[in-house]
Amino acid sequence: MDEFNRYLAEAIRVRRSIQVYRELFDSEESVNVLSSKSLEVSVIIKRALHDEILLSLARLFDSQGYNNNKELLEYLSQRNLVLQHQDLLDDKLRGLRDKTSKIWRHISVKDYRNMKLAHNDKTTLFTGTTPIRHNVSFDSATELVDTSVKLILGLMVKSGQCSVKVNLNEVYESEGLKFIEAIKI
User: Fold this and answer.
1) CA–CA dist 21, 39 (Å, integer)
2) For the chain, which terminal residue's Cβ has fewer other Cβ atoms within 10 angstroms, N or C?
């Protein structure tokens, strides 16, 4: 699978996770149903989905890469795809890139990922400093991923590649709600 389609597959997977998370934990009825079955399990599911979404967003929108034994290993991120194909950017695609950059800066996931999710930073935990937070909401995460998908699709078209291997329409709407209905019994 080519780099565009690999990126799109990951972006769509994350978008689906956001949709399911929203349906499971953004409604009082859903939370009550989950909690009535097992409060402990619902807390574990919520935390696991929350952390998975934030880590996935970081992978999609993070910086250039990381050093491993003095070798830079590049992320399959929007940033790197755009830099690799920057000659294809027109005004519309630059606008989409700028929009995702603005949202990414606002939601502030990188420090949260580094200090809380990846390393559980001891200084943050034990010094009484303000807890590290992110600004991700359902709407901002959805807008970030949806805008990025439009940008990558635009780059694909500009590069002459029109074969999309993932189903862009499959966003799992109502899957979380169907799950809640199934466990109500």
Assistant:
1) 16
2) C
